[in-house]
Specification:
elongated, 2 strands, single chain, 2 helices
Length: 75
């Protein structure tokens, strides 16, 4: 059994990547709840987020201020 990511396009499911399958090969499709998917993505994002100390924030802010453009045409 192979899992395939796909999306529904009106009347058919379209795989997001190439699939090795025979014509008329049986398949099992599970419809994911959109809200559950969004919640999972949000939870994943939150798990990757972190925090820094105020001292580190101030150091980073100072470094960014030191690198601000002096001339409009500067990159």
């Amino acid at each position: 059994m192979v899992a395939v990511k796909a999306y529904f396009y009106g009347h058919v499911f379209v795989p997001e990547s190439p699939v090795k399958a025979e014509v008329n090969q049986p398949a099992l499709i599970t419809i994911l709840d959109t809200e559950t998917t969004r919640a999972a993505k949000k939870q994943r994002l939150l798990s990757l987020a972190g925090s820094i100390s105020n001292e580190d924030y101030l150091l980073m802010k100072k470094a960014l201020e030191d690198t601000e453009k002096v001339f409009p045409d500067e990159w």
